Amino acid sequence: MRRSSLPAVACRVADTLIARGHHGVIVSPETPAPTAADAARALGAHPTAITTSQVFLLDNDPVLLLVAGHHTVDLVRTGKRLEGTLRPAPAELVERVTGQPIDGTAPVGHPTNLPTWVDTALSEHTEVWAAGGHPNTVFRTNFRELVRITAGLPIQVD
Length: 158
Description:
Distance between the termini: 34 Å
Order of helices and strands: HHEEHEHEEEHE
Strand content: 15-25%
């Protein structure tokens, strides 16, 4: 996808990726992909290689969890691992702290620095895909690079 045809929010994500040493290429699958399973089909990727960017409140502070598409975050177990109480963030807070629509939230490009954890299940793949900051935009990376570009910490999420 040419940069001129990307939404402004996806361009900000691309700029952040490039600033952090990633190639910054964001693509838009021809088939809309509102779910991780849809994205996997559209990209020809395994569903477990799709990364979802999910904002939670850890106690009262927003945090970002980058979760393998097949995982559901266990709030109690993951909260214990993070040493606090974990609960889903309200949609309006997600959009405010990320500056991105909730159905296209990327791991980077936010106006605030969110503490970030990356699901270790993503390490099972040589490449993973994450949202590009706008619905139906994605970029390719790998687990190690995802940890690096987000300054994230690996965590078991299941």
